[in-house]
Amino acid sequence: MDSFQESQRQIRIALVILATVIPIGVLGFMFLEKFSLLDSIWLTVITLATIGYGDIVAHTPQGRIFTLFLILFGLGAVAYGLQATASFLFSPAVRDRQQRRRTQNAIDKLQNHYVICGAGELVDNTVKYLQDGARRRQEIQRERIYRPVDTALDSIFGDDAHGHFPGLRGVLRRIFMFFVWIFHRSSTLLDVVVVVTPSLAGCNHDHLRNHNLLAIEGDPTNDEILKRAGVGHAYAMMVMLDSDTEALLTVLTARNLNPALDITAATLEEQLAPKMIRVGANGVIAPYEVAGQFLNNATLRPAVNEFFNTILFTQHTDFQASQLSLWDDSKWIGQRLGKLELRQRFQAGVIGLRLENGIFVYAPSDDYVLKENETLIAVAPAHTIGPLHRACREGGSNRPRMMNWQRLPLPTTPPRTEHPTY
After folding, report:
1. pTM, rounded to two decimals
2. Measured distance CA(75)–CA(72) in Å, rounded
3. Which candidate, 25, 61, 209, 358, has a CA 20 to 30 Å from the CA of 344?
4. In the 3-class helix/strand/coil scheme, how is 1-42 assigned residue by residue?
5. 263 contacts 234 by C-beta, under 8 angstroms
6. pLDDT at 250 over 90
7. Distances (CA, A) of 179 to 8, 145, 146, 147, 327
8. Contact at 8 Å (CB) between 288 and 412?
9. How far is it, in rounded angstroms, from Cα 153 to Cα 206?
């Protein structure tokens, strides 16, 4: 029995005792002191509450002895009930239940969110990467808010490097950023991420909730747990479990709940990747294989490795890679790539393009005509990523949509050989 149930049991016992003592006190005063019903209730309540106005008291020896026993038993019951109530209200178990209820209410309001299933170092590193990205995004948003103020200060005091009163400008900047931090609530990816962690990972679960992440404790292979995480109306899902069998069941369960969900799974054994895809995963990653590829690339092509690490995994960098999806309502459809002037407008360079069938076109030319359901892969300064996406979705719906295609392995046909005839 946990502390929450124990506190509830103690409160119930205290209520039963009080429900017994109060009627006994009322009937005792009515019988021994011949008080009216109202006077008996009044005297019983002020006796148990230790108020004692003195307007009504027991006069007979029998009534006074009865009052002594009422005080002993009644005050004990009241003290027991107060202690149980305090334990119930301030116990960690109650706070945990309240936190779980608030978390579930927040999850129920989400639409097109992301779900992470798993526990351990892989999930911790993923969450840490998301947190670093969220902090970077908040910094960029604050800088964007401050930019008009900085322009106004430049017109008054001159440029930052050559202007006057640099100390005063620094103080004004800190004051402005302080009020922005108080009143501006910037949204980040962490606001739409739900982590489902197994029941045995209690410490990991507490760590996630302490960082204001929406976390659910439970078995991710369970339908009800995934429903609580909102998989039925989620946008994408990552599966990172310690067991490939559980990962396989989680992918299968999630695919049955949401046929349009984009699922990426991690597998410890590379040979299970085709099976993971067949049961519903859109993409499968083998961490050890990927680590080997990165080590090999860092050794043989260090410049290439550093370039892609910078634009893909380093949060505090000037340039980042991003993808631009061309849905059916995008104004970019039917235009030539060079006509968009992405480099002039956003300092963005297109390094690749994914066709509707999943095939990639590397470094498309300026004469390439964009088509529906294609995805541009561009590298741009971090502060222009947002305007670049808004320009791509201009006039269209901002609701995220998923192009649900799978990286299916191509079957290999064994070579035919001519058998000699005997």
Report:
1. 0.67
2. 6
3. 358
4. CCHHHHHHHHHHHHHHHHHHHHHHHHHHHHHHCCCCHHHHHH
5. no
6. yes
7. 44, 11, 11, 15, 39
8. no
9. 45
